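Reopening closed ticket. The problem is back. First fold of the pair:
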Amino acid sequence: MEILGLKLLLLITNFSILTYVLMLVIHHYQSNYDKKSWAFLFHILTFLWLVFRGLFWLSTLTSLMKWSSAIFFVLYWMPTPLEFGAFMLLPLYFAQILYPIEWKKYWTYVRPIYFGLTIGIFLFQSIWSYFKPPPTQDDHLHCENVVDDYIAEKCFRTEGSTNAFREITAICFLFLAFIQCWFGIQILKMDKYRYEQYFITSPEILSIVNILLVISFTSRSFYQIMAINQLLILPDIPLQPYDGDVQIAIFVACELWIYIPTLLILLTFTSRTMGNILPSSK
């Protein structure tokens, strides 16, 4: 039996981070910290999308279930708006620090926009996944050792038959990269005394983290733009265990776009052992 090493490594990465986030949530409750803090919201959103991602990778490793288009889109694409919502919290936190007076004035407007955008994208993708037309012959993976009927019914391309999710992802993460870059630069311009009020992490480390986050968000957006224009398409993800492992390009993309930025934020901003936990948004 083939050892699906890269799939297994992605699964281990996913559930390792999920376990760590769960521990942070439990510690947050036990310590009676503010439940309205940026950090707590980041942990909750991250926990949710990690559950979706974990179920997806677990299913591709162990399950012989019938992959309907709805199941595929829910497990593969639904984490994206939750990831965006979680990553968006960091530049919002930066904005709160940089512009405290303006923040108090406009927070009542920023809050519904943020939650409305995150929930709106999530609901749009949910509705689209439910009402999406059945896949055509060009919309499936090239599964091996199965008959044609099986292929047409149960194997789907990673990208599906629409660019709708791609366009949303490209716009969201390009916007995220821009504001992360802008606020990240402004944070590093703060005077030393004010900076140390909010961060334990050194400015040098914070600068490196910001650069890596911007690279991750920008490359994720640019890839979607290139894919929309058929300039670059990543290999399909084999959905059945016997269809083989993922390509190295898929593994690198998942680590760069999903797991590395999550770990950077967790360890730099929301872990009490390595940096200040994000305070309340009030």
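Second fold of the pair, where the issue appears:
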Amino acid sequence: MAAPQTFGDTTQGTKTLAISAVYAYARKFTGFPGGNVSSLSLCCQYQSRVGDSKWKAAIYAADGASGTPGTLLWASKEFTMAAGMSSLAFRTVNKAGGGSTYLDEQDLWIAFFTDNSIFASDDTSGGTGIRAPAGYSYSTAPVATWNYGTTAYNRLWRVYLTYEPPSAGLYIPSLMGPKYYPSFGGVSYG
């Protein structure tokens, strides 16, 4: 079993921006190597003026028009931001329903949604993010196919996923002696 790895932006950063409940947010990451995704982490903090807030996250394939978010691949449980979470830190949510989901090698969009407002770590320079136009519903997010729009919002949200890469190969004992079959993307060929 391979050790868990991270993919995305693990830098905490120092800047924050209030993110609103009327938008869906996403950031694109290229070159996910493939593996079993179990959790997702967002660098954020409690916003005291609004009280408790909930947020959830999702991973979309970059198979929409011109590489925009398209097909929902993974959805998280809900996370509650409450008093006492006033320092900027990575908060982690597991997959809805538990366990993990295998995702192939591909480019991904990591999206997040809030029911109220939270502070999220970001950097305004050079981002590959989008902020959906107002009008999405937190209660139904995430949807199976991204339909929230693709308005550029070039922020570098600090967000990453944790995954277990596929094993390097498969050992199969046989009557003619042991054989080693290489593995490509989690599929063994012999």
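Update: turned out to be a display glitch only; the data is intact. The CA atoms of residues 64 and 70 lie 4 Å apart. The longest strand covers residues 35-45. Please close again.
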